[in-house]
Amino acid sequence: MLGLTKKDLQLMLIVTGLTMLAPFILNPFPESSGMAQFNAGYPDLMQRFVIFGIFAIGFNLLFGLTGYLSFGHAAFLGVGSYGAIWMMKLVSLNVIPAIFMGVIVAGIFSVAVGYICLRRSGIYFSILTLAIAQMSYALAYSVLTPITGGETGLQIKSTDRPLLSNLAEGETGRANLFGMDMRQSFELSVGDWLFTFNVGYYIAAVVMLIAFYVSIRIFRSPFGLMLRAIKSNQTRMSYTGLNPRPHTLAAFVISGMYAGLAGGLLVAMDTQVGPERMFWTASGEVVLMTILGGVGTLIGPVLGAGVIKYMENILSKINKDVLHEWFAFMPDGLEDFIVFLVYPFIGKGWHLTLGILFMLVVIFLPGGLVEGGQRISKWIKNRRKAKDTGGSTEPAE
Amino acid sequence: MGILEVKDVGKRFGGLQALGDVNLSVKENTVHAIIGPNGAGKSTLLNCLVGKLIPDTGSVMFDGQSVLGRTPHEINQMGISRVFQTPEIFGDLTVMENMMIPCFAKRDGAFRMRAIEDMMREKDIVEKAEAMLEDMNMADKHHMHAASMSRGDKRRLEIGMCLAQEPRLLLLDEPTAGMARADTNNTIDLLKQISDERDITIAIIEHDMHVVFSLAQRITVLAQGTPLVEDDPENIKGHPKVREAYLGETAA
User: Residue B200 has what DSSP assignment?
Assistant: First the structure.
């Protein structure tokens, strides 16, 4: 079905299920319980999960398949965002043309960047992309202020009058999809649980599913095979009559367009852009997401994006008072000591936790969280088999 | 006129004259060996033929067309395939995927964007790759990681990948270097079979005289960047100049 193999179709269905039911899955704790702060099922965060998932899927198409590590991918995200917000300010408040604009602008920009950077490979390629991204950031921050709004960035203002809209005098436009406001939500309260179904989230989720589907098709296509060949052995590739350059450029542009799509969606959800979106830490973040989840795997980047965004938004909100509340059952001295130990890893210290997690994954699970999952399922299968045969398959000491 | 005509090719690296006035003519559907002591310029010559190096002087014509100034993939698409001294294969991919890549390259050319089609549903490619693996006696290794195979198997896979492109000229750079005797003999048999069964010209650089004299129909001896002699194997064995330069007293 859908031109996928059974295994890929299964994966696609699982991802579809998870994204569609995310408001339930991410809100497992009752509102009044102390664990409620671990609930991630609010629209803003759910939107981030899927949008950065798209960003990481696109990044993985370049890094996972061809092995070219771009360290400036946030530039495409930023450029896509600027493209999208101008579309909204000038033409229409409908998100579809804005998102399209984001993809197109990022695509054109990545053709130019790719043409320059792909002359080199390895670390030189990474440095070139980093340099270009930092230049874009600096330009957006200062010289290009008339287009980018400089430090303050761009928002939709009450003075903006898009061509295809009939706003009342002084009314500030809102992003919509054929009249449906992105911020519109439907809340369902069941007992002590509150589930929020947000229009913006579902639009972003559907776009992510499409992006995920396309990425599966690319992975399984002859083009995807050629990209993996580039990663494996460029010499053999050239001496097999294949030109690596247009292949890598095409992968780079597709990847840049994914970033532009993510940038456009960010604007559609929250109509503002600032230059910090292109800063090098943002480029580094997508590298972390991909490696954490599993480079070159289909689902890995989405997982990585989810984990990092979850930590960024949930872990960072825990403060000292919350910790004291948690450990209140302990004797005073011990309580203070435990809080002292845990404190550096939460709140603003969430980067420390991320760093440790990243190190552990890279050292023990080079294939990322996906490899972790595979090992666990293998272990369970082996155990089950061992039980069936009466435990006689235990390896010899 | 041979299928490959090398005329007055010279190549200098700084102060070293690696090749000087090399003339070589390889006739169609023959096996032509290029031998010579270490540093004779054999590999430099080969690199000049496939576009890795550009000679300073002279011309290289393949089937009446100049190959100079073309990139390796363009030269390959003209019909020249190369087997490397250490097997160059796609180690991260499976054997089947390795074999499918040259099939795609033959059908679709140097670059064609086919990003949505499923590669396993390209019937003609899959069938051709499977047949080629069968020919190479590797049908049972389909799903193996290419990097995990033995050296002899890697070599056979590489030769198979080159043949899948249906080249007119196959260049081999010391194909049996570092191989055990049994593997060497298998490779000789394979190359013999290829040259008997297919419309193909083979040019081979080799150190091992056993390989050279069991395969070659014509031999060029290279020494210090210039060809000493070009002749049939029987005459090469007894040629005084060749003995002096390469075979030494032991070969007598």
Answer: -
